[in-house]
Amino acid sequence: MKPALAAIFALLLAGCGRYADFTLPPLPGGPAPHRMVSMQPEPILTRGAPGTWDSVDVLNPSVARRGGMFFNFYSGFDGRAWRTGLATSPDGVSW
Questions:
Q1: Could you give the number of structural domains in the chain?
Q2: Domain that holds residue 33
C-alpha cells in the first residue's frame, strides 16, 4: 500500500514596485472545494527598505515545501541589478 499524499496549492500573484507586492488572490464566488481556505488579498512579501537589494521590485515567486517549512525563492531589484532572495515560512502565509 502506498502512503497517503497531501498537497497544498496556492496561487501567488506577483506585482512590481509600480503596481503591487506579492499577494494571495481572493477565491472566486461559488462553492469552494473541500478544505479550501479563503484569504484576503494582501502582500506576503513586500519590497525592501530604500537602498536595499530588493527596494524597487520583488517578483517571480517559486515556493517549495520541505520538512514542514516553506521556502520562497524570489527575484529582487534595486534599480540596477536583479538578485535572488529566499524567504521562509512555517505556514506559507507569514513570510
A1: 1
A2: 22-89
